[in-house]
Please model this.
Amino acid sequence: MKGFVFFRPLAAVRHPWRSLLQFGALFSLCAVLIVSCGAPSNPPSTALPTTTGASPSGSGRVTMGTTQKVETLDPADAYTIFTGILLYNMGDRLYTYTPGTTELAPQLATALPTISKDGLTYTIPLREGVKLHDGTPFDAAVMKFSIERFIKNGGGPAFLLSDQIATVEASGKYELTLQLKSPFAAFTSLLTFWGVTPVPPTAYEIGEGKMQPTSFIGSGPYKLAALTPDAIKLDANPDYWGEKPANQGVDIQIYASSANLYNTFKTKGLDIAYQTLEPDQISSLKQDASAGGWQVIEAGSTVINYMTLNQKLEPTKDLNVRKAIAAMIDRNLINQRVFQGQADPLYSLLPTSFSTYKPVFKAAYGDGNFEQAKQLLTAAGYSEAKPLSFEIWYPSASSTRGNVANTLKQSIEKGLPGLVNVTVNSAERATLSKGVDEGAYTTVLLNWYPDFYDADTFIQPFLSCDQGSPQTLCTKGASQGNGSFYYSAKANDLVQKQRAEQDPKTRDALITELQDIMAADVPYIPLWQNKDYVFAQNGVNGVSIQPTQQFLLWQIGK
Model:
């Protein structure tokens, strides 16, 4: 995520820290929008929407400000959180979530899928009477085309479906049949991903790289009316089959800095400010909300932040050293000193909102447990005569991660004087990405936003390995791409079992066991979980952040 930056997968290697736009100011992205030669014959206007000032209460339109950029609106290639929010509001998916919950609900499907006994065949009944923005009738053929295009065009998120789906068939006018390569318990949840949305075959093409970044035609409650590097205009879809928007449209202004966003909102120039403000700006808006006349909407998020530890390099190849570093971490200090309380300490790679979350690192290592760290380092052969030295790397564009790294250095060297020396280093994004792939760094501060709401997205990308052994560690697979090079035959087996397991209780037990293994082997150290904030002027209603991190623009009214 950029703004919160997670890097895009490279080639066939999936990076758990891929590029997704998320909440909090960590990185900024200057996006270059390239007009596709395959654009529809009637693309949206590129006239700049009028978004200077909060919309009058009777105007029917809502103004929103953000610092996030739009890389592409092609659902086969969009892989940042902000573009995902836009597609979520302009398109529909087979399945969605009941607002305010994490309960799966049919959307363009009319019921949950019928799943074969072997877990490989999903039969999905489809809704009739739906039309896309250009008038194209929605049916199984349109959905088949859109899914195959998502897979075959080779965009950033293509692997999400290509890894799972063997064949797509329109088994009836309004029935879709998907054949999986292997059983996957979270597959229905995966079908809520914003890119799995129907687009018209007459306006889009199937083919490697045939993307349309500056246009979108879908079936959702909003139509794309205008797109420029500085602004986006969404108009309510008058022919929408579902719940009609509570507004006539949303005008989104993209600001060059969080300071501009903060000042414009504070002086009533916007109805809503969302993504992203600095911690001190958030604190100011929270403190002044009553006098200023605006609302503060706070929610937990599913963004996790962690340290990856390279098991191929000294000193982190030593398990006792990895455990000692885990014991040195003081999450509460990080939260207060860096985030002003605007985060939550995290003790597993699963977010706290999941029922299967188990705070395994709190039980095993605590926070700032320097006595335990000293014992572990002694067992590893370190002393004041032979102190431990290790590096913490972070992306150079992230001042926040730099603050976290330096806070850790100060805390650790103060808690273990003479015994531990910490060096803080940074590298620009491309260099860091390459270095993580190649195993160049001992520890790196990274973050992760899930592709869909399921525990698997916090387990498989971290603990699985396609090729490796206890001797070579992971030579190809998720943990190699993450820079830990973690290999465990037991973890691999449990990851596959939980993916295939259809019984929720049995699956939950497997996920719990995998968290225990992670705490025992320490390939990663969970650090903090972000909080998400949106600010809205008084009189603007229906503003909320969903438990799945989506932002439903159609619920907002004045």
